[in-house]
Amino acid sequence: MRVHWLQHVPFEGLGRIEDWLRQKQSEVSGTRFFESDELPDPHQVDFLIVMGGPMSVNDEEEFPWLRREKEFIRQCIRLGKSVLGICLGAQLIANAMGARVYRNRYKEIGWFPVQGIPSNNRSLFRFPPAFEAFHWHGETFDLPPGAARLASSEGCENQAFQLGRSVIGMQFHLETTPETARELVTHCREELAPSKYVQSEEVILGAPEERYRAIHALLFQVLSFLTDTAG
């Protein structure tokens, strides 16, 4: 499996996804937009993973590569490739496919509950009715045309969506490890202003190991679903 991933800042890497890719003996390449905006031929990619970042999809003047990135995402989707977007990555997928991205009513930073949307459609991934996930976002998106909402939360209606059989966008982070959570806190500490859906550094970093195990198990289910149903 040829996997290409898109990284927007040095401190938001693949996290636990890297272990899954290693287990699958995937051929992995990546574009680090903070170093180069060189992208592969989308025909040579089987699975595209779009990670998070502190910028907005609307910051095209400040980050001109966003235009090329959105076009690349759009090409991969139209070619029927498997695509996973996380946080900014989900917003990029939504925007690339015609949806609006804008400031959410609340910032969500920390560990908060998410509710899976029940469905009888077997082509859709089904999140658990209730689970706890790690969040770090201040923007949200409308669902792109033809997309199905997969998950929601009290603070953000559109937490996850699916487009076709092999494209999923998630606002929340299932790939987070204690190390990547610490990196986010270190580099984005100024965002931790106390509010309804923003937890303190101590609460964020004090999450027990079983919480990480739970999100990683769910992450592996999402990754397997996308790659098993590709095409």
Characterise the protein shown here:
- The protein has 231 residues and is of the alpha/beta class.
- It has a single domain (2-228), classed as Rossmann fold (3-Layer(aba) Sandwich).
- It has 6 helices and 9 strands, in the order E-H-E-E-H-E-H-E-E-E-E-E-H-H-H.
- It has helices at 17-23, 65-78, 88-96, 178-188, 201-205, 209-228, and strands spanning 2-7, 27-32, 47-50, 82-86, 101-116, 131-141, 148-152, 160-163, 167-170.
- Strands 2-1-3-4-9-8-7-5-6 form a 9-stranded mixed β-sheet, with helices on both faces.
- A hairpin with a 3-residue loop joins strand 8 (160-163) and strand 9.
- 39% of the residues are buried.
- The model has no long low-confidence stretch (mean pLDDT 97).
For the record, give the distance between the C-alpha atoms at the N and C termini, rounded to a whole number: 13 Å
Total domains, how many? 1
Give me the secondary-structure category: alpha/beta
Topology-level CATH name: Rossmann fold
Secondary-structure element pattern, one letter each: EHEEHEHEEEEEHHH
Unreliable segments (pLDDT under 50, ≥5 consecutive)?
Answer: none
